[in-house]
Design goal:
Layout lengths: L1 H24 L7 H18 L2 H6 L1 H34 L16 H8 L5 E6 L7 H12 L4 E6 L5 H7 L6 E6 L7 E4 L5 H13 L3 E6 L16 H8 L3 E6 L13 E5 L7 H12 L4 E4 L7 H6 L4 E3 L3 E8 L3 E5 L3 E2 L1 E2 L12 E2 L6 E3 L8 E7 L5 E3 L2 H4 L13 E2 L3 E7 L9 H7 L5 E5 L15 H13 L21 H31 L1
Amino acid sequence: MNKRLQFSGVAALVLVVFGLLAQALILEDTMHIAAIHFTAAVLLLLVFLASGGVDLLRSKEMRLKAGFGAGVTLYSALFIGLLVLVNFMASRHEVFNYDSTEQKVFTLAPQTIKVLNSLDKDIVMRGFFLAGQLDLNVEDLIKRIARASDKLSWKVIDPEKEPTLVEKLGINQSGTIHFSFKDDSSGKSVKLTRDITEQELVNSLLKLTKGAGKKVYYLEGHGEPDLNAEGEQGYLFLKESIEGENISLLPLALGADAAVPADADSIIVSAPQRPLLDSERTAIEDYLKRGGNAVLLHEPRHSDDIRKLVEPLGIKVGSDVIVDQVVRLFAGPSLGVQPMVTTYAKHPITEEFKEGTLFSLASSVRSSENEHTPGTRTELARTSEKSWAETNLDLLFAEEAEAAPEENDLVGPVSIAVAYDGAVPAKPGEENAAAEKQPYGGKVVVIGDADFVTNVFIRQLFNRDFFLNALNWTLGEEEQVSIRERSLRGSTKGVTAEQFSTLFLLTSVLFPELLLIIGLSIWWARRM
């Protein structure tokens, strides 16, 4: 009887504690959890008192057990307090960091790590946010970046509390992040006021440390994809991605007498639909002969200017379209003209690639080097062994036609892009001869597809990284040749408010309460 009586008193106390916890933590107690706990506690307490609970508390045996129980309670409280302290310190200092998302969206991109490792001066990042306006996800991102380099420090400042500093730094709106050198009297700084993402933060660091970005000219006037178009076939996302690399992207209109500007660090020629004038093609050739750099994108069934421009480099662009076998869900294998490349060469442009690049209607691009073409060529990406380069385009695009590799077709794996480096080391005493042989002295990347970086394709797999790495490689920006911030989905699933309340109730109230009651009952039964 005493055991049941004592247990009813302990159970009443537990119910009161968890009832108070439920009342404090559950904002909308639609299931009346707190009321149920308090009602059950009162009933157990009445049973305890009505069955002689007061006499039990006054007994000598109970006083001895109470002393032992007080010790157990004290040690239990100390142990729980230690666990709370360890968890608190771990959450504040983030000793353990594990990204469980499928695409590692909470892990800093390799490009970010490269940029942070290249910092040689201490930089202060000041975030000016009114109280309560700093997004927790943004703060977490900035802290991850600051932790990755001992050259970075991060401060959150309330503009209303430090108006003098706000005026000194020229902060005009809340939500601005100010970048500056810690010990620099020049006053050089960069401000980021919107789109606070990992890529924009890295770009701000590059602007601060490197100053003005390099200049890239984009050839226009021949039906090339529009850099400002928002439709599926436009290049707006590509333009934003390039400018996000701290690169100035400028239009290039050659015409009959114009030349490539002398300040061009690289040029982009992308799928001209109408043929270039002879003078325009000569202007580009002259630029490349001066050691200029370029990214050249060929598109099947467009003009053959890219093909003519790269012939002196020992690169052959095929008059074909790559056909590859694809597997569709519930449909099995079939042929398609959107090859996905997963095989890459060992080259700075593709050295960290672990996923595919999706192309659309691409031509073969391969090395055709011989003794008359100095420089080095690397076939960057190849399609699968089941692919081939179809030369009979009329048959390929005819209705109800069945494509199959023929004698004149190039059988897979088919190269789809080539990187050319014209910096050829000359042997001693042969410097002049090497210079005469070398037609182009810069870096050129030739890709057999221009659609893979349109608005509809650029965010697929490694498409954006493939192009930006190629462009940065021609610019000599080695720290920019990497994998950028992932914007792909994480392994998460949304829950409704009702589902969250249920999960919270089960994990934070009912399960701990049930375990505690069972544990106390077992311990109490063994002590009696």
